[in-house]
UniProtKB/TrEMBL annotation, chains A, B:
It comes from Dichanthelium oligosanthes. SUPFAM superfamilies: SpoIIaa-like. CDD domains: STAS_SulP_like_sulfate_transporter. Signal peptide: none annotated. This is Sulfate transporter 3.1.
Length: 653, 653
């Protein structure tokens, strides 16, 4: 701060009081900044006439109205390729994840038919490929399974899954409508990295059931009980399925490796799952391996999604369970979907409106829950394939759902002999991609706290449960924010020779103290959470400075300049803190001086009468000026200083 | 920001990278700043030799070792007067509050005997007068009463009260020992104002039982059920006790009014409660009013505190209840005690170590729970009397406890005929002082959010329960902090003519934009909670500026200067936000420039490789410099600007 600029008296030398605005105006302003920071309806409001406005509004809620009219054959070609590619991935993945959620495999296909169509109409991302995700599937299984067994009461379990999906959709959509999108932001990047890795680990562990061909398996997801149930039944392990599973897993990993090395060959890894499904099915069909301990999917019903509106459960006993499941899975699905949408939008340099996306994803899940689909969002793996396959618009989702529709109508019998172990292999190979250890290393290098958040989430998920991991991570993150507020950094500023600039002494080694003046900088808003800390910390700064000067026989502290430049806000605890500080400094014969307070601060100081108490004459736009005027009063015996500040004045003529 | 100072190239023109410190050092440093900001053991460490150090340590934990040796007869005289004054207040108040807590009245006297002695040894406040408080008493009654009836099972209720006190003490002391004092700071001033007023209202409502001479009364504290139980038994109302009660209430209020007007006459209001107790007792004794529906205290056991260690309940059924009660009441008592201690310390200009106080108050309650005392702290009313009576040291507490001891040994029979209605009157008159409506008005004038917090606490307490009120208030307060982080203010900075200073356009009307350069200031740390908001908000600033310039046919935005001066911290989400911002601006052909980042920020930017990406050459110590160099590259066609910045340079030779 500081600089000879303001020294030339006049308007600039005063810290202006912002013009008083009626309470309602400021209130409305704050409300807008809080809930409509992106000013979503600008495009609508700009239009003239009711008709054109409704059209703009429609375009806002149904983005396809924007690209559909200008849709070209070239774009369609690329979308066609992309759509078929992701369909070939969606079918096996869908079945696998449905198994993971302890739901009938066919639901995986249903869920890849309706939701993509809805998203194609309402979604604003060009690259998002809609489908079910492993983590949410696992969560549904574990949360619902805790109260309703999928094996003993499959119908109820299924209906609760639909209900949870419904609630998830309602929750997501209402978050968007209420402009509460920022709630998702509280799942920090670090949280998601750790959480995803943990979930992937857990999912892989669950696959041991399929790989080892076990019939009984624990319902809980933590590593301890999984290991127990695995090693408690070693005699049940099936070497056939182990061999088959590891074989396909190896194949899938090799293809992923190749595609990673050569992005051009993305289709190899994209087609690999379907290939292995076909290979596996054929193999089983020829060898009749289903009779030798290889479990297969079995009969899949032909036909499109049956309606499921009537099977939604709104009756007391299980409704709360469905609600809880819906909200938790909804948030997680939302976080992944929006993160994926944003990151691809960044590559192609277009904007994603978070709240709008929420409404789209929410609607897609609500309608899904009416048509026998369970929770869907935009999975990273599938969207990445979609992006690499060169999709141009959301049309690729339509293509995919058409492909899935054809499968549902005619091809379901082909999956009868598909061995479960192959699905397990597919899931594992997909999950391993989610364990992003490099990101964790990056976190450690950049920010230790974020690393703790990440590890906390990971361990919480792996050793506790998905919910525990989530809670741990969010708790640490919020605690960190609160700690930042509760323990703001205060630093001593020093003068940079031959200038009126003041900089942190610990950062700028050239900076020097001004005798008799202690310049302190507060780096956070002054709130109730840190007011009393700041009071004590500041008085400690003063004490230490007093000691130092006494030891060196220098001039003691006469002026305490507080640089308020970085103080973004202040509340009543803050103002009364300044009040007390002023009084206690007065008793010690020191003068408090404020530099560069913002309009917000000025307003508060004025209305709390602290401004009067300190006196307008002790408030300056810059530290440079503040110190200069203290200096004059002190008749500083350090001519250099006076020279400089004098120079500072002449400069500006 | 800005200033020709740095323009003279060389060292000052670079933003220095802070010297790399080993992780453990920074970690230790942060730990110290977080938990030992006041550096409590400085005095101990400064001493030479083990003996003198232990002495210093003893002095730290037992402050009386500091003042006792230098204690003078003059000081003793003032302390004697103060002590007797507060004793005359403590005896009736103690009995009243014990009744309020549904505990035997004698406990009020016990609790004014042991704890003051402990505090005199360990407390660092000279003005705090120890005793029981109405709010905590009410809380104990309501929380314990919810599960154990004081009338049906008095013994258990009593033992649970001791246990709760024990837990409260342990909790308070451990907060102090673990240096977690700042937790109390999260009860903001606004919270306490609203909470206290609400509690006072509730307590007054409870007194309707005594005033109306009712036998049955609701156990719940909310206004609705109290009013119900009052008006459901109008036929039970006793006009005698109503008359007596209102009479004494009037008397007490008049004395309080007088003392308020003439602080010299503090003793009038201080002596009033004891006077009314004596008057009331004599009146009842003469008129035998106890037979006409005036309830009296009845038999009080002679003798000092009996030990109560054995009656502490650590057995499952009720332990959790006692624990919960202890923690909640403990925090509230702590908040009041420390607030009181701090405010009086400010008047006399000495310092209170919050954590040390917690240890003192905690120990006092632990030992209290062993000697038949219940929760004590430093009540505001009593401490104020103590202060006005001119106390010099904690000795006044000793005097008080001696006076109480004498009462316990010889004078308890005198209270046999004391009418309960007088105690109710005493409580009400004390409570009315706690309803600080002026503070609420002040809150409204200064900070609307704080006002909401205050009202939220008040309504929560009055219509819900004390706990609900607390939760509401703390929730609003924390939400406010989180919102501040989630929605930081970003402002456009403009150049102040004929200088290189840049100030907020909305505050400084003289400030002007620099063509082709958009200067933005971020007013908060860049954390996961606001990273994506900031990205969107900044791009919106740019869009709007682009539109404006296009409409006016001015030069479009070429440079976006981010003033990081007020950015106190950054995490990985923040760094990756800057990363993305840089990339997306590049695509739009704009250059991002950082001004005045702190050492913390520089470190993070460096370790996250964002510094490389942006390039050292685009990081400047001040906005002035940043814009100046952009200007040169732009070959700005606005000579004025170049002139200025050039001038800025010449100035500094």
């Amino acid at each position: 701060m500081g600089g000879s600029g303001e020294a030339n008296g006049g308007a600039a030398a005063r810290v202006p009081m912002p013009p008083a605005r009626p309470f309602l105006d400021t209130f409305r302003g704050n409300l807008k900044e809080t809930f409509f920071p992106d000013d979503p309806f600008r495009s609508v409001v700009r239009e003239r006439g009711a008709g054109r406005r409704t059209l703009a509004a429609l375009r806002y809620f149904f983005p396809f109205l924007e690209w559909a009219p200008a849709y070209t054959l070239g774009a369609f070609k690329s979308d066609l390729i992309a759509g078929i590619t992701i369909a070939s991935l969606a079918i096996p993945q869908g079945i696998s994840y449905a198994k993971l959620a302890n739901l009938p495999p066919i639901l995986g296909l249903y869920s890849s038919f309706v939701p993509p169509l809805v998203y194609a109409l309402m979604g604003s991302s060009k690259d998002l490929a809609v489908g079910t995700v492993a983590v949410a599937s696992l969560l549904i299984a574990s949360m619902l399974g805790s109260q309703v067994s999928a094996t003993e009461n499959p119908a109820l379990h299924l209906h609760l899954a639909f209900t949870a999906t419904f609630f998830a959709g309602v929750f997501q959509a209402s978050l968007g409508l209420l402009r509460l999108g920022f709630i998702v932001d509280f799942l920090s990047h670090a949280t998601i990295v750790g959480f995803m890795a943990g979930a992937a680990t857990v999912v892989c562990l669950q696959q041991l059931k399929g790989i080892l061909g076990l019939n009984r398996f624990t319902t809980s997801t933590d590593i301890v009980s999984v290991m127990e149930s695995v090693f408690s039944q070693t005699h049940q392990w099936r070497w056939e399925s182990v061999v088959l599973g590891s074989g396909f897993l190896f194949f899938l990993l090799v293809t992923r490796f190749i595609s990673k090395r050569r992005p051009k060959l993305f289709w190899i890894s994209a087609a690999a799952p379907l290939t292995s499904v076909i290979l596996g099915s054929v193999l089983v069909y020829l060898t009749h391996a289903e009779n030798h301990g290889i479990q297969v999917i079995g009969y899949l019903k032909k036909g499109l999604n049956p309606p499921s509106v009537t099977s939604l459960q709104f009756s007391p006993p299980y409704m709360t369970l469905a609600l809880k499941t819906g909200i938790i899975t909804g948030v997680i699905a939302l976080a992944e979907g929006i993160a994926v949408g944003r990151s691809f939008a960044m590559f192609k340099n277009y904007n994603i409106d978070g709240n709008k996306e929420m409404i789209a994803i929410g609607t897609m899940n609500i309608l899904g829950s009416f048509t026998s689909c369970y929770l869907t969002t935009g999975p990273f793996s599938r969207s990445a394939v979609n992006y690499n396959a060169g999709c141009k618009t959301a049309m690729s989702n339509v293509i995919m759902s058409v492909a899935v529709m054809i499968t549902l109508l005619f091809l379901t019998p082909l999956f009868h002999y598909t061995p479960l172990v192959v699905l397990s292999a597919i899931i594992i190979s997909a999950m391993l991609g989610l364990i992003d250890y490099q990101a964790a290393i990056h976190l450690w290098q950049v920010d230790k706290v974020d690393f703790c958040v990440c590890i906390g989430a990971y361990l919480g998920v792996v050793f506790g449960s998905v919910e525990i991991g989530l809670v741990v991570a969010v708790a640490i993150s919020i605690l960190r924010v609160l700690l930042f507020i509760a323990r703001p950094r205060t630093t001593v500023l020093g003068n940079i020779p031959n200038s009126m600039i003041y900089r942190r002494m610990d950062q700028y080694t050239t900076a020097q103290m001004v005798p008799g003046v202690l310049v302190l900088r507060v780096d956070a808003p002054i709130y109730f959470a840190n007011a009393s800390y700041l009071r004590e910390r500041i008085s400690r700064w003063i004490d230490e400075e007093e000691e130092r000067t006494k030891d060196n026989g220098e001039m003691g502290v006469q002026y305490v300049v507080l640089d308020m430049g970085a103080v973004g806000g202040i509340d009543t605890s803050g103002t009364s803190m300044l009040d007390e500080l002023k009084k206690s400094l007065e008793r010690r014969g020191m003068q408090i001086v404020l530099a560069n307070p913002g309009s917000e601060i000025m307003k508060k100081l004025d209305s709390s009468k602290v401004l009067e108490l300190i006196g307008h004459e002790w408030i300056f736009p810059t530290v440079g000026e503040a110190v200069a005027s203290c200096d004059y009063v002190l008749h500083s015996h350090k001519p250099g200083m006076v020279m400089d500040s004098a120079a500072g004045h002449e400069n500006m003529v």
